[in-house]
Amino acid sequence: MSEHEMQKGKKYYFWVDEVEHIVQDESLTVAQIKEIGGVPADLPLLLLNEDGSEEALRDDMIIELKPGRRFARAPRFKRG
User: What's the CA angle centered on 16, arms 14 and 20, to 5 degrees?
Assistant: First the structure.
């Protein structure tokens, strides 16, 4: 999408791993959020709630982009 097209419509902001992203869609699937945010498809994505809690998300879930929505890739754990 061109910068000119982005200026015409409503914008929705969200953050993935502390990086802001802007889209014109008011909702996206988790898979789309991961793609836009550069999160590998095999990593889970977390919704970071305002109260500090985290919610694991499935790729097929549809997320409404409310103001301040923040996401983070789930950490990988390796057994040593």
Answer: 50
The domain spanning residue 54 has which CATH number? 3.10.20
Alpha helices, DSSP H, located in 1-80: 3-8, 30-37
User: Checking DSSP bridges between strand 70-73 and strand 12-16, what pairing results, if any?
Assistant: parallel
pLDDT at position 75 is: 84
**Residue closest to 59 by CA, chosen among 48, 46, 50:** 46
State which residues form the domain around 69: 11-73
Mean pLDDT per 10-residue interval, the chain, length 80 residues? 62 96 97 97 95 96 94 81
User: CB–CB of 34/60 below 8 Å?
Assistant: no
d(CA 52, CA 35) in angstroms, rounded, equals: 24
What pLDDT score does 11 carry?
94
